[in-house]
Amino acid sequence: MNISDSRQSSVADRQLLELTLLYQFSNTMLSTLRVKKLTHLILTAITTPSSNLFERAILFLRNEKTNVLQGMLAVTRQQSDGLQIVSGQDALGSRWEISDETILRQRSDEYCQQVRLTRIEIDGVCPLINKIVTERTLCRSDDILCRQCEACRFIKPLCGGAFAAVPLIAREKTIGMIVVGNPESACKISNDNLRFLQLYANQAGMAIENPMLYNRIEEAHLSLKDARERLLHGERLAAIGEMAANLAHELKNPLITIGGFAGRLLKSLPLATREHRYAEMIVSEVSRLEKMLSEILAFSRKPTICFNYCDLDEIIQDCLASCAATFEDSGITVSFASDSLPWNVLGDAHQLKQVFLNLILNACDAMPEGGSLFLALEKTALDKKTVIATVRDTGGGIPKEMLPQIFNPFFTTKHHGTGLGLAIANRIIMNHRGSLEAHNTKQGAMFTITLPLAETDYSPGL
Ligand SMILES: Nc1ncnc2c1ncn2[C@@H]1O[C@H](COP(=O)(O)OP(=O)(O)O)[C@@H](O)[C@H]1O
Ligand SMILES: [Mg+2]
Question: pLDDT tens for residues 440-451?
Answer without folding.
Answer: 999 999 999 999
